[in-house]
Amino acid sequence: MIDNSKKIRHLYSRAGFGLRFEDLRMAEHSTVKQAVEQLFKSSEEIKPLDIIAGNIDYKTFLSKGNDMTKKMFFQEQRQQEKGLNVYWVKQMSDTNAQLREKMTLFWHNHFACRTQNAWYAQQLNNIHRTNAIGNFKTMLLEVAKAPAMLQFLNNQQNQKNHPNENFARELMELFTIGRGNYTEQEVKESARAFTGWGFNQQGMFVTRPNLHDTGQKTFLGQTGNFGGEEIIDMLLAKKETAKFISTKLYKYLVNETPDPAHVNAMADVLYNSKYDITPLLKFVFTSDWFYDLKNTGNMIKAPVEFIVSMNRQFYVQYQNPDIMMQFERTLGQVLFYPPNVAGWPGGKNWIDSSSLMYRIKIPSTVLNGGVIDFTGKADPEDEAFITNTLKSKQAVATQVQTQPDWDKFLGEIPAHTSKTTIAQVILSPALNSSVMDVVNRSTDIKTMVIELVSTPEYQLS
Amino acid sequence: MIRRDFLKNSALASGAFLIPSFLKPFEAMANSELTGYKNLVIIQLSGGNDGLNTIIPYGNDIYYQKRATIAIKQPEIIKLNDMQGLNPNLSALKEIYDQGWMGVINSVGYPNPDRSHFRSMDIWQTGSDANQFLTTGWIGRYLDSNCTVNKDPYTAIEVDDTLSLAMKGTKMKGIAVQNPGKLYQSTREPFFKELVHEHDNANLNEDNLGYLYKTMIETYSSANYIQQTSKTYNTTAVYPNTPFAGQLKSVAKFINSGLKTRVYYVSLSGFDTHTTQQNQQGRQLKIYGDAVAAFVKDLKQANKLDDTLVMTFSEFGRRVEQNASNGTDHGTANNVMLFGGKLKKSGIYNNAPNLSTLDNGDLKYEIDFRDVYATLLDKWLNVNNSLVLNKNFAGLDFV
C-alpha cells in the first residue's frame, strides 16, 4: 500500500467509520487535502432522525391511565427507545455523511444525556447532528434549551427561590471550561442566571419569567443581571473552553494521550474562528502530526464504531435489527444510555475478558454463521470442535439473520490487489507477524478476511 | 519440531504455556494456602428494593400509618426482635438468622442521595460521592490496589454475561462467567487458540494492542483454570429451580472447589415496584431468600461458610409513604444484609430506621455505604480502605 493510501485509510478511520474499497478507489488518486474536502462535501447533507413521530406526554397519560394502559405505555416507550437506537445505527452504517455522523456520536457523548422520552432524545440528537460540524456556541445554546437536557439536569426545577445547580455545574465541569477553572460560588451564581429555563407540555423551550431570578450575579469577575445566554458567552470568552473542547476532540480523533502543543494549536484555531468546528477539524485532518505513526492504529474502537465499521465495510443488512442493540449491550455502549453525565469513559475501559470475547466472536457471527473457518493446522482435539461449529452454523445464521454482501465487498477490491494490501485496508495497526501468518497461509480472500476481522488488531482504529 | 508436537510437549492442559513469565508469576498456589482463603460474595438487588417491606419495622406505628394497603400484617411477619421482622417470603432465612449467620445494617446510604436508578447504582458501584463521576468500580480498584498478588481476572468473578462497572479497575478487571463450560468452549475456538499461542511477544507492550493481547491471554488461561478447577467439585446440595439460585449454585461450586477467587458478584433484578408492590416484591424476595438459604447451607456443609461473607445491597430504598398505585417510589437509605459463618456481630446491627424524622419523606441515612465497604476491605479482604475509596473511612464492627 502506498503512503498516500495509508494516510487516506487513517483519515477515514478517524473522521469516519473506516475505509471501504470503493472509497479507496475514489480517494487513492487524491491528495490528503482533496480527500478531506471530499469528506466535508459528503457531509454537507443533514438528514435528521425522524422515526419518532411525536411526543407522548406521559404525565397526562399516566395520571389518567389505569395499570393496563400504563403497562402499554411503558411497552410503547421501550419500543420507541429501541426503534430510535437502531435507526441511528442504521443511519451511521448507510450514510455518505460519515464525518457528520461520527461527530454526532462525539457530541452525543460530550453532552451525555438520558431521557425516557424518545421524542426528546431524537430532538437532542438532531441538535447534535445539525451542528455537528457547525458552530459550538449555537449547538450549546440549543442543547441548553432542549427538553431532554432541561429535564436530565433538572433545570426544569431551577427557580429563583429554590435554585437547582445541576445544569450550571455540569455546564462548566463537562460542557465548557472544565474542572479547576471555576469556583463553587460561580456554580451558585450561574445557576441563578438559568432560573426559569424550562419547557412546556408541548416540549417547547420557555423562559418562565416569574421563576427567573433578576438579581445581580457575579460570575468570572463580572457583575450584572445575567441570564443564561450571557453566562454561556462569558464561558466561551475564556480560552480554557476552547482548550477543553480541543483536548476532548484530540482524544477522540487523534490519541488518548493529548500532546500539549497540538492541543494548544487546536484551541487557537477554535477560539479564533469563534467556535466554528469545521476549521478546527480541517486543521487536525491536514496536520502532519495527525498522520504520525504513533497516532495511527492505536485507538480502541468504541462498540458502536466497531459495529458500524463492520456494517459499512461488508454492507451488512439486518433482518432482525434488535440484534444490533444486543451487541451494544454486551459490548457496553447502548446509544442514548450513557453511564452518567460524564459519558462513556472509552479507551481500555471498553475492554474486559467478556467484551473482548464478544468482539472477537461477533464478526464471524454476522458474516459467517458464527464460524471462523480455520486455515491453520488443526490439532486432533480441534477437529471435533470444527465439526460441531459447522453443524451449528445454520442455527446461528437463523438466529442473527444478517446478510453481508460478499459479492459487493469482493467486487470492489481492484483486480491484482495483493492479500497484504487487503489486510492493510481491513486492519489499522501495522501488520505484525501473527497477522502476516494469517495472510500467508490463507487460500481464499473471504476466509482470510473473516479471520482478520476476528483479531485483536481489528479492535483498533 | 512441528507445531503440533510442540503443543503436545508444552503444558497444553494448563493453558499457561507461551505466556511470558512476567504475566504469570504466581500461577500455581499450593492447596494448603487455600484454607482460610476468604471470599466476598456481593449480591446486587437491582431496581431499588423496598427495604422497609423486607426487614419490616413492625414495632413502629408510623410504618402502618404510611402504608395503609401495602404494609405486611403483623401475624405474617417473622419477628427478629421486638421492632423488626422478616417479610414472610424470606422465611427460609429465619433458620440462617437463628444460627447467627445473618446480619442486618439499617439506614445505609450517602449524603445528597440521587433517586435515579442508574446514577445511584453508579455511585454504589464506583463508591463515589454523589457529585463525583468515577470511571472505575470499587472492586476494580481493590484489584488494582493488590495487583501484584491478585493478578488474574478470576480474582473477581461476576456470574453474568457481561461485567459490571463495580468490577473494573484501571489496571485490573474481573471476569464475567455465566457458564464456565461455555466460556471454556468459546476460548477453545481453534482460531482463537492460535492467536493466543502464536502472537508476537512484541504485541505485549503497554499500548492498546498489548492490552488487548494481554486480556485475551488472561481470558484464555482463566477460562481454563475456572473450568478445570470447578469441574472437580460435584454439587450435591439442593437449590431452588430459579436462574438466580443457579447463579449462587455456581458461586458455591467455585468456592467449594477451591477456586482462588476473592470476590464474586451476582445480581437479581425486578425490584422497581411502583405499582402493586406486594406480589411483585414478594416473588423476588422469595427467589432471593430461598436461594441464599440454600447457598449458605451448601457452604456450611462444605466447611466454607467461615471463609465466606455475603453482602446484599440495592441502589436505594423506597419512600416511606406508599403511592396511590399500591406501590412505592424511589427513596434513599436502605438496609444491607450480610451472611457468613464469622460475623462478629450477627443479627440487627443498629437501630431500626427512624420513621419520624424524615428528609422530605425519605429516610435519612445513618451509615455511609462506604463504611460498609471499608469494613469489608480492611477486615475481610485485608487492604487499606483508603487505597480503594480514595479517602479513609472508619468502618464498622460486623466482622
Automatic annotation (TrEMBL), chain B:
Coiled-coil residues are: none
Against Pfam families, the record matches this protein to: DUF1501
Give the source's domain of life in one word: Bacteria
Q: Do you know which PANTHER family this protein is assigned to? A: BLL7424 PROTEIN (PTHR43737), DUF1501 DOMAIN-CONTAINING PROTEIN (PTHR43737:SF1)
The name this protein goes by in its record: DUF1501 domain-containing protein
Specify the species: Mucilaginibacter glaciei
